[in-house]
């Protein structure tokens, strides 16, 4: 695929952010890890990329030309020549470091024999999405996790309220009402989860299965706010936490203890303590947990004073 993206950084964003994925047979994926990591480091790229036998997935950020170089490097592989990506911008560095990980799946659903290169739902362009989900004959399903749906969802969509994507297949099997209407419309952040979820639905015998091409990010980028059926912000897996229409950065912050997105009022709760707890996780953590998080938070503050990065694992 010819890359026609304008790589001129947006005036109010100093970091270009590229979300990408591509399903393809990639048996020698392990040998690609080191060259890809070296190329990312050489181009001052941060973020996370997952590679597996079934393809590549991830989000990276860096200078506009560096992103263009890495995308070209990935597309130089014949398996990924048709890789597509979505760009947005961040005013601050959205990731602390660069990681390239080897995985069994590039998005973990936990169902054997699901191959989106062989069977998948019908793609729906962002401009046609409103008409589909407004059709009374359509059931609209959000395939994301509960902490993602907490800050935004399409009007009228069903929220499975799942903790991880692994729970989605059982949720479908336990909801016979999904057969009550002829059309199923599914969506996720960038499209990758719907590649597997729609393949799964087709495998179960659902006939008319559709998914939003490019995901919520493409919709927010292209559909004007005044025409939008999206309510809230879209959770993103970097330091921006959420983005709105036009992919503008939102005002959420993350609880460093549970990774739940927090509104401004959450941070004024007596249950909120920076890096230690928030109203969403306080009751599920022990005092021993919180003391451990306090020590971690202290080390992070000391490292910041010294001008160092503290990369302690998530609690």
UniProtKB/TrEMBL annotation:
Domain Rhodanese: 134-228
Matching SMART domains: RHOD (SM00450)
Classification via InterPro entries: Rhodanese-like_dom, Rhodanese-like_dom_sf, TrhO, TRHO_N
Highest rank taxon of the organism: Bacteria
UniProt cross-references to Pfam families, sorted A to Z: Rhodanese (PF00581), UPF0176_N (PF17773)
Coiled coil region boundaries: none
Gene3D superfamilies assigned to the protein according to its UniProt record, in alphabetical order: 3.30.70.100, Rhodanese-like domain
Broad EC category: oxidoreductase
Keywords: Oxidoreductase, tRNA processing
Enzyme Commission number(s) from the entry: 1.14.-.-
Reactions this protein catalyses: uridine(34) in tRNA + AH2 + O2 = 5-hydroxyuridine(34) in tRNA + A + H2O
Described purpose of this protein according to its UniProt entry: Catalyzes oxygen-dependent 5-hydroxyuridine (ho5U) modification at position 34 in tRNAs.
Family (UniProt): Belongs to the TrhO family.
NCBIfam families documented for this protein: PRK00142.1-4
Entry protein name: tRNA uridine(34) hydroxylase
Source organism (scientific name): Rhizobium aquaticum
Gene behind the chain: trhO
């Amino acid at each position: 695929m010819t890359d026609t993206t304008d790589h001129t950084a947006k005036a109010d964003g100093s970091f270009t952010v590229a979300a990408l994925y591509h399903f393809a047979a990639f048996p020698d994926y392990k040998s690609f890890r080191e060259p890809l990591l070296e190329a990312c480091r050489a181009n001052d790229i941060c973020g996370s990329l997952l590679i597996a036998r079934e393809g590549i997935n991830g989000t990276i950020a860096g200078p506009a030309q560096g992103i263009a170089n890495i995308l070209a490097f990935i597309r130089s592989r014949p398996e990924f020549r048709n890789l597509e990506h979505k760009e947005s911008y961040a005013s601050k560095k959205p990731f602390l470091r660069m990681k390239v990980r080897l995985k069994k799946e590039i998005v973990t659903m936990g169902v054997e024999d699901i191959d989106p290169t062989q069977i998948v739902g019908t793609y729906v362009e962002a401009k046609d999405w409103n008409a589909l989900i407004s059709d009374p004959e359509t059931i609209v399903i959000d395939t994301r996790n509960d902490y993602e749906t907490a800050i935004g969802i399409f009007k009228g969509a069903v929220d499975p309220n799942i903790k991880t994507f692994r729970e989605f297949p059982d949720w479908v099997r336990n909801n016979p009402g999904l057969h009550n209407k002829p059309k199923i419309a599914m969506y996720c952040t960038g499209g990758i989860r719907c590649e597997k979820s729609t393949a799964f639905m087709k495998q179960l015998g659902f006939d008319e299965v559709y998914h939003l091409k490019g995901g919520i990010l493409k919709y927010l980028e292209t559909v004007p706010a005044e025409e939008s059926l999206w309510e809230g912000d879209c959770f993103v897996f970097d330091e921006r936490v959420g983005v709105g229409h036009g992919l503008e950065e939102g005002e959420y912050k993350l609880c460093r203890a549970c990774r739940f997105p927090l509104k401004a009022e959450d941070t004024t709760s007596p249950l909120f303590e920076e890096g230690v707890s928030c109203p969403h996780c306080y009751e599920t953590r022990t005092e021993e947990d919180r003391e451990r998080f306090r020590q971690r938070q202290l080390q992070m503050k000391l490292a910041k004073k010294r001008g160092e990065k503290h990369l302690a694992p998530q609690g």
